[in-house]
Amino acid sequence: MSSQPSLTRRSALIDRVLGGIERVGNKLPDPFILFLLLFGITAVASTAMAWANVTVQLPGTDEITMVKGFFTAEGLTWFTQNIGVNYLGFPPLATVLPILLAVGVAEKSGLLAALIRKAFGSAPRWSLPYAVAFVGVVGSIMSDAAFVVIPPLAAMVFKAAGRHPVAGLLGGFAAVGAGYSTSLFVTSLDALFAGITTSVTQNLPNAGSAVTPVSNYFFNVASALVLIALAGFIIDRILEPRLGRQGIAREEILDDDAVLVPTVMNTRLTDTENRGLFWAFVAGVVVAGVILIGVLLPESPWRNEDGEFLPRSPLLSSIVFIVFAMFVIPGLVYGKITGSIARGSDVPRVMGQAIKDMSGFLVLAFILGQFIALFNFSGIGSWLAVAGAGGLESIGLTGFSAVVAFVLLASLLNLFIISGSAMWTLMAAVFVPLFVLLGYEPAFIQGAFRVGDSATQVLTPLNPYMLVLLTMLRKYEPQAGLGTIIARMLPFAVTFWLAWVAVLSVFFFFDLPMGPGNGIMIPQQ
């Protein structure tokens, strides 16, 4: 008789629904072919729209822009001249590749494994999902680097504790992605959104309170705490048990021959490993101290022209370098002490191994870069946003139902326009004035946008970091596809969306401040 508990009806229903989604999703073509088809569809659609003289007027401007067609003289010459630029200019490459090189040094030297064994070897197993959820949700302070760094580390944490590494990998990604627009800390995204909102409101009469980087802080903290608890619960009670019910063994592919070995790691470190960890920690403190001193100097070149760091500054543009340094230098120190990196020639070797592990993503990035570039060149993304905004405005909803409809529209558009700043630029210009006329504070509408901007981005294949995740997942499950990821992300996305809207409704109906000096409704004069 099996020792495994019998499935409840609810578990069986969840498995059937998610299993069906996974099977349908995995019937999609290989991601490379899928995006090649999407490129072709966009090329044909843009050409048809160009021939039909479809135009888009960006909110806040008087300029009318025509949708550009691919199969036109302008479109074809653009493509033939920029095919290399489209690939090398694909934004995630600038984040992924340097971090892969750095993480490769820290991982192949043994630093990451030793650090995780030291930190989590004696931690209660039940707490790990919530620790991963916490790190993932607040990891947005690292911007896009969090998508590359946190999921594989979460997998290693679970592996060290004898838990399912795939649950850590996917749970870490879900926490980073679905909670990207919120944090317990003020991030560069807060300043960026505030700047966009202010640019819209500065010419509006009676636009309410000024919007600052902390205008959504109270809402962000409440949202982050709820999302951390939910993410940990879903990882622990839904994702990991379902992986077990699917019969996916806790195994890891360790070499090119696909030799599978158990994942439970010995948490006891040798004296050499402990010594390596100590000096790696010292090296990390030194690196952080040097960076901190350089940044805090009054005339620091990492400040902006106003001598500040927000909303934009060289410091915030140097996040990838900071992450790179914080992985490479301690990794080299640890490797030198433990002997895992004995010679200088070992450094490019381990970096090369890291790039080799992600070679599949580099191939996918080529076609994805072409698709994203065409999508932006054609102007279809802007047309979708403006058309969706006009449709919602024509419905004439008022009250909280209008806010929920706005959040839903942002969630749908987020499946196509991944950049939160680009989408908020388009939507703020239409909806902030609209909701101001209805009496809502701009900071409240900005907070509502955050819900739609984050909750669904872990479901769309247009999110380039989903393809990074797929490459990582295939180390554990070689047959995994986009349907696998979408089915496993769906419980996070749906639960996060509903809970986040619930938090928004609490702030709305109890008239709680969204942040210092920013409420829900514009005070009556």
Automatic annotation (TrEMBL):
<keyword id="KW-1133">Transmembrane helix</keyword>
<protein>
    <submittedName>
        <fullName>AbgT family transporter</fullName>
    </submittedName>
</protein>
<feature type="transmembrane region" description="Helical">
    <location>
        <begin position="455"/>
        <end position="473"/>
    </location>
</feature>
<feature type="transmembrane region" description="Helical">
    <location>
        <begin position="217"/>
        <end position="235"/>
    </location>
</feature>
<feature type="transmembrane region" description="Helical">
    <location>
        <begin position="317"/>
        <end position="337"/>
    </location>
</feature>
<keyword id="KW-0812">Transmembrane</keyword>
<feature type="transmembrane region" description="Helical">
    <location>
        <begin position="358"/>
        <end position="377"/>
    </location>
</feature>
<feature type="transmembrane region" description="Helical">
    <location>
        <begin position="277"/>
        <end position="297"/>
    </location>
</feature>
<feature type="transmembrane region" description="Helical">
    <location>
        <begin position="485"/>
        <end position="510"/>
    </location>
</feature>
<dbReference type="Pfam" id="PF03806">
    <property type="entry name" value="ABG_transport"/>
</dbReference>
<dbReference type="InterPro" id="IPR004697">
    <property type="entry name" value="AbgT"/>
</dbReference>
<feature type="transmembrane region" description="Helical">
    <location>
        <begin position="32"/>
        <end position="52"/>
    </location>
</feature>
<feature type="transmembrane region" description="Helical">
    <location>
        <begin position="128"/>
        <end position="150"/>
    </location>
</feature>
<dbReference type="GO" id="GO:0015558">
    <property type="term" value="F:secondary active p-aminobenzoyl-glutamate transmembrane transporter activity"/>
</dbReference>
<feature type="transmembrane region" description="Helical">
    <location>
        <begin position="424"/>
        <end position="443"/>
    </location>
</feature>
<keyword id="KW-0472">Membrane</keyword>
<dbReference type="GO" id="GO:1902604">
    <property type="term" value="P:p-aminobenzoyl-glutamate transmembrane transport"/>
</dbReference>
<feature type="transmembrane region" description="Helical">
    <location>
        <begin position="397"/>
        <end position="417"/>
    </location>
</feature>
